[in-house]
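Narrative summary of target 7.
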Amino acid sequence: MKNNKELMNRAADNIRILAAAMVEKAKSGHPGGAMGGADFVNVLFSEFLVYDPENPRWEGRDRFFLDPGHMSPMLYSVLALSGKFTMDELAQFRQWGSPTPGHPEVDIMRGIENTSGPLGQGHTFAVGAAIAAKFLKARLGDVMNQTIYAYISDGGVQEEISQGAGRLAGHLGLDNLIMFYDSNDIQLSTECEAVTDEDVAKKYEAWGWKVITINGNDADQIREALTEAKAVTGQPTLIIGKTIMGKGALKADNTSYERNCATHGAPLGGEAYINTIKHLGGDVENPFQVFPEVAELYAKRREELKAIVAERYAAKAEWAKAHPDLAAKMEFWFSNQTPKINWEAIEQKAGGATRAASATVLGVLATHVENMIVSSADLSNSDKTDGFLKKTHAFTKGDFSGAFLQAGVSELTMACCCIGMALHGGVIAACGTFFVFSDYMKPAVRMAALMEMPVKFIWTHDAFRVGEDGPTHEPVEQEAQIRLMEKLKNHKGHNSMLVLRPADVEETTQAWKLAMENTSTPTALIFSRQNIANLPEGTDYTQAAKGAYIVAGSDENPDVIMVASGSEVSTLVAGAELLRKDGVKLRIVSVPSEGLFRSQSKEYQESIIPTGAKVFGLTAGLPVNLQGLVGANGKIWGLESFGFSAPYKVLDEKLGFTAENVYNQVKAMLE
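Modeled conformation, tokenized:
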């Protein structure tokens, strides 16, 4: 419903007052951007965004993804007007234990759809959410007819990820995506013109977006642009809103404080703050108030939403009555439950590469998990995500009946899109590339871990055995980096990530089982390019669920315990054959996940690697990978330099990853 412009300006000023007051009280934060963007979020939340005030998790709701997390005061303020935060909670901005941290953290019940902070990621989450919505609509129909809104700033446009997000959204014609670009020409340390003079409109038009340019502080123009954007088909829409940084702010001498870098990242301070609050019509002594007429505006919106939602629920009920099978699927897909898979029935070809074994599993998942989306960064035939693709087809503009996203060469964009899918809900997202390129993805992996999003990261070509491609493509330090995420706890006190590097094709099946059952954190699956001999017959692969376990054929009361993950376990098995000829008693332990192992009981850990035992570790990465298992008295053979270009079997010989070197190293330990 169209509201009086004077009332809309009053509501935007209310948001500006609350935002400035939050930052002032905290003595920390970013008031300027929040004050400039207040008009847009006010129009969006009071007239356009469709959600259920009584049921924040409603699957069919519109989503709002904030990219510039430093503009959290703006988001908290408009959500307070919507009834999601109290004035006391706003007054506790950035304080210990408050629900209003410096950058927003995902909280669906509070209306916050994503954690935001690292610029560029938030709007890319929105692209992923829009893809998920299209995927679900192709299967479920108009019950998934929601609009995905995103909000981006000058900094987000400058971050390189915006290239990938813009290209992909335009290429796929995501007409359910509307993004507002808060173009205020001011950054934290400079004006934008000091670092860029690109034509943003032409750039997005070249990517296939519909672009509308408006005065971003004019409620009428914002309303018209949103109305126009909602009617666009076949294209995502970018609304470029030219806004005023620090709109309404005054300096201590009562001159304008607008369009000033100083308002970007610091409280207005002293007389400037007092003058600004007065100028905007607030109470300096008690700025944390909602004006009566603004409260009435948002109360009216709540009543409108009740009517809109009631109509949507009625349509959903009719749909469910006509399509009970689809209704049951929808409920299950959004329940975050683990799909039923007959893991025992999966047959693997012995002695293969674990990436090939992953492809076998993915082929099963493609036919048994209807709400799974897999993506690859232009490597599907090499990272073997094509095991999934061969059973479905890739998304194209206007056709989301398939379940594969060809992301192109854009690993960070791909990762953030998959996170956005998970944030949207209703889908299981996985993405693949070479392990060395996890470097491009690390900022997104960290955000997935922080938000507890169960994305499956598939990384192949796990070590120097990439061979001829040379050091640029050979991961050495990457495993240590990713395994740190297992040591980092999330706010629930759990390992923030599950990291699995299986030892052979059968352990790969178990790794995928653990990944699919892990619905509370991201999972890393690290696979080999080269073939790997299977572990000895009789190995109980289900023990991989404990993170570390004893391989079949190990001796009682061993002289040495040998530990490894991935293909190095089979090298230990080969070395053990030589050592046993000398009468050495050995235990071989496969450790696909140290994090999972350390989550087991102390008794179990002691039963596998007893305190005080002699332990030898073999890793194709940095020796630190195994330090926590081997201990100070043990010995680790690892790789402490970049790799080299040569056939992988030559590298095994040159770098000491052979049965003979295992024999020599262990014998030296026993002398």
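The CA atoms of residues 343 and 513 lie 7 Å apart.
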